């Protein structure tokens, strides 16, 4: 019978709970694609329903994957559940299921990467070349330079980072929190068009405080766990 509640035995267990927050934040970050998708809609008013449907669909997929993964592996469920499909599952057609899961994950990456990469390239171009007279699409040299540079950095980083869990933890506690909570709340506080109410500003301040506090704990816990893992690893 799998364990349904966290095993909290000391303060270290409490700190570990905060390491999940950045991963969850990363899973729901899609803010950088909202404006580009909104510009392509014939009816911009449908953007809210699109965002809600996307969040509901993603939540359903995440909950279903985690629920059935935990039912299958129990306490042996890895941080990266894909790693559990490296061995014999003890069920019929185990090798076929392992291959199907890995193939579906590869297809998922192929479909998701262009969406994230498009927004990353567009925003990086605006950051590096803010006064460029030609758009990125019409400037082949600038387009190729940024594209090749980003792909090289992404692939080198993917091969150097030992665990995807570590990457999600630190990016979720830094960049994802800024994109999802701190930057939107800061815009609401600045309120350049004077449309924010007092309630909006109170919520913005609360959001920033909670984001900074929870993710400061998450960064501390992530770094502490990483250093402890390094110290306990065997040395030649």
What does this structure look like?
By secondary structure, the protein is mainly α. The protein is built from eight helices and no strands. It has helices at 11-18, 20-27, 31-40, 47-73, 94-128, 140-160, 164-190, 198-232. It is globular and about 60 Å long.
State the main characteristics.
236 residues, 8 helices, single chain, mainly alpha
Distance between the termini: 40 Å
Describe the oligomeric state of these chains in a short phrase: single chain
- Helix vs. strand class: mainly alpha
Count of DSSP strands: 0
The percentage of residues in β strands lies in under 5%
Helix content: over 70%
Low-confidence stretches: none
What is the chain-wise order of helices and strands?
HHHHHHHH
Overall shape: globular
Computed CA radius of gyration, to the nearest angstrom: 21 Å
Helix count from the secondary structure assignment: 8
Strand count, sense and barrel status of the largest sheet are: none
What value does the average pLDDT take? 81
């Amino acid at each position: 019978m799998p364990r349904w509640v966290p095993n909290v035995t000391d303060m270290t267990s409490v700190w570990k709970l905060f390491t999940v927050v950045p991963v969850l934040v990363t899973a729901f970050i899609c803010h950088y694609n909202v404006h580009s998708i909104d510009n392509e809609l014939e009816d911009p008013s449908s953007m809210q329903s699109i965002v809600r449907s996307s969040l509901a669909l993603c939540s359903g997929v995440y909950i279903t994957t985690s629920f059935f993964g935990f039912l299958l592996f129990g306490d042996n469920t890895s941080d990266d559940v894909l790693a559990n499909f490296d061995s014999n599952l003890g069920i019929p057609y185990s090798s076929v299921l392992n291959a199907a899961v890995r193939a579906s994950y590869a297809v998922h990456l192929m479909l998701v990467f262009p969406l994230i990469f498009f927004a990353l390239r567009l925003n990086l171009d605006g950051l590096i070349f803010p006064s460029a007279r030609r758009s990125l699409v019409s400037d082949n040299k600038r387009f190729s330079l940024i594209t090749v540079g980003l792909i090289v950095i992404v692939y080198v980083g993917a091969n150097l980072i030992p665990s995807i869990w570590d990457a999600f933890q630190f990016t979720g506690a830094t960049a994802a929190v800024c994109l999802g909570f701190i930057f939107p709340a800061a815009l609401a506080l600045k309120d350049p068009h004077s449309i924010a109410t007092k309630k909006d500003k109170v919520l913005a301040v609360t959001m920033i405080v909670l984001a900074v506090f929870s993710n400061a704990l998450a960064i501390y816990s992530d770094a502490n766990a990483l250093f402890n893992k390094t110290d306990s690893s065997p040395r030649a």
